[in-house]
Design brief:
The chain has about 325 residues and is of the alpha+beta class. It is built from 13 helices and twelve strands. The protein has helices at about 10-20, 35-40, 75-80, 85-90, 90-95, 100-105, 110-115, 120-125, 160-170, 185-190, 270-275, 285-295, 305-320; strands spanning about 5, 25-30, 45-50, 60-65, 65-70, 175, 180-185, 210-215, 220-230, 240-250, 250-260, 280. β10 and β11 (about 250-260) form a beta hairpin. The chain binds flavin-adenine dinucleotide (FAD).
Length: about 325
């Protein structure tokens, strides 16, 4: 690993100002993703700006009217073990439960999980790929079993974060601070596709930090769930995952939202599927019909067409299991 300076600012203002001024610096939360990238020489920042001492970004607060607020530096294990998360926000709980080893969750933060870099082995390997400023996505003609089936052109990564998928399904909002001003945006507007910028996965500019995740209150008729299909029986990134949040009334979904992971460079919504979840009668026949509507247009690569079938089948599994049909 190349040498670097280490900064430990006391507050978010000085962290953000330092990051804005020093273009070769980078924010460091748990370090579970960042340090691996530095060891592999994918990044060589001149300064690491440790956010961990900024205590006011480490909290979980719940209020029935406002919902759940989580500071970006809160450890994944603390969120997973929080009673309100388990009781009311099952989709978030399951996405963290499925995420990685207890050791990683004791160090990794929610902000770091959302902002982690892609696992594509061309990006993480010794390739001058398009995400690192080169002009080629090697996955297009290379080993592309794990790459995206939608939204890829010109870089076919998949977004690696499990929590991102759950948070978009929950209509979460993200608070961003740039050193002076704070703004709050819907989670789904935070993530960007490669046709907007193929070198980054979200809208953050240098010096901007994710500070808080706000999840709206849910009512007694809301149910939610997350299913992740992995290649190994042990911890692994998703081949395809699915998050669903539904309001229900008897045998009907009154409205709902399904979001996929592992299929696109950002958490992915299929408009046709979500449009059909308004006043949706929960019968096996309707569920099968719904699944057949998904992923009409894809951009599959040589080795990843299986993800289309997997994603369609996950819609069926999610609805049958969530509603005990
Ligand atoms: C073996 C292994 C398996 C894993 N499996 C999974 C998995 O299955 N699913 C999954 O979702 N994740 C998985 N992960 C990823 C892991 O969850 C992340 O490494 C972790 O969540 C990152 O959190 P961190 O706090 O350590 O982030 P860091 O490593 O400190 O930072 C990650 C990135 O986010 C940026 N960043 C951090 N905090 C902020 C902030 N507040 N604002 C702006 N930018 C910020 C950093 O600059 C850096 O670029 C795995 C990781 C490993 C090593």
């Amino acid at each position: 690993m190349k040498t670097f300076e280490y900064m430990q600012p006391e507050n978010i203002e000085s962290a953000s100002k330092f990051l804005t001024k020093n273009k070769d610096s980078i924010a460091f939360a748990g370090g579970t993703d960042l340090l691996g990238l530095m060891k592999d020489d994918i990044f060589s920042p001149k300064q690491l700006v440790n956010l961990k001492k900024i205590g006011d970004l480490n909290f979980i607060k719940y209020n029935e009217n406002e919902g759940l607020r989580i500071g970006a530096l809160t450890k994944l294990s603390e969120i997973e073990n929080h009673n309100i998360v388990k009781e009311k926000y099952n989709v978030l709980y399951q996405s963290i439960y499925e995420l990685a080893t207890p050791q990683l969750k004791n160090i990794g933060t929610l902000g770091g999980n959302i902002c982690q870099r892609p696992r594509c082995f061309y990006f993480r390997g010794d390739y001058d790929c398009i995400r690192k400023g080169g002009d080629t996505c090697f996955a297009i003609t290379g080993h592309n079993k794990y790459h995206c089936i939608v939204g890829g052109d010109p870089c076919y990564i998949v977004h690696p974060s499990d929590t991102a998928v759950a948070l978009v399904a929950l209509n979460a909002k993200f608070k961003i601070f740039d050193g002076k001003n704070e703004k709050t945006i819907p989670a789904e507007e935070f993530f960007i596709l490669p046709n907007v910028d193929e070198t980054k996965e979200n809208i953050l500019n240098s010096g901007e930090l994710l500070t808080e995740i706000i999840i709206p209150p849910i009512n007694n008729n809301t149910v939610s769930s997350y299913i992740k299909v992995k290649e190994r029986g042990a911890w692994d990134f998703a081949l395809v995952s699915i998050a669903g949040v539904f309001n229900k009334n008897d045998n009907k979904i009154t409205d709902g939202k399904i979001v996929f992971g592992g299929v696109a460079p950002s958490p992915w919504q299929d408009k046709k599927i979500n449009d059909n979840l308004v006043s949706f009668n929960l019968t096996q026949e309707n569920i099968k019909k719904l699944s057949s509507l998904a992923f009409e247009k894809t951009d599959v690569l040589e080795m990843n067409e299986y993800k289309v079938t997997l994603a369609k089948n996950l819609i069926i599994k999610l609805l049958l299991e969530t509603f005990n049909i």
